[in-house]
Amino acid sequence: MTRIPVVAPEEAPPAIQQWYAWTMQQFGVVPEPFAVLANHPSLYAAYSEQEAGAAKAMTVLPVNIRDIAQYRVAWTIGCSWCIDFGKMISRLHGLDIEQLKEIEDFATSPRFSDDERAAIAYADAMTATPTAATDEQVADLERRFGRDGVVELTFVIGLENLRSRMNAALGITDQGFTSGEACRVPWAKEAREA
User: Fold this and answer.
1) Which structural domain range is residue 93 located in?
2) Which of 84, 117, 136, 167 is most exposed, with minimal Cβ within 10 Å?
């Protein structure tokens, strides 16, 4: 159970009800982080706009680089919701889900490319406290992905740190996206049956 209760659709303002409907179309359920964030409607709106804008703008990096960096952050922080959702997104993107089982051994596993290893190492450096990113890392990433690619990678890693840390702090755990058992949000089952 989350530390802050979810907001049911009938309790949500009309704008949030529209976002709930959109997320139901996209994922079949309302992602629990959104249902908790709905307790603060104006922050919900700002966060939703940020997520939508980022999804639209992130077009430079190969999808496997973005996905693996985000997954590594979630794995490092221990956000079970982000790990679950990240696996589903990677599967939908047609990526190697078996690869994720070897994320701990990315440096030696043959399942990871040199570009993926560089992105994962950067995710580790950015997620460390204090941040441990180096000039050499950024220069290497710029050679691999271009300047805009480094900025995009940095943004997506920072965004995943935000998501994972918020979810962990609010007690939001996996929702069953990879098991087919989604969703713990109380009204989701009723909505699917209606």
Assistant:
1) 9-193
2) 136
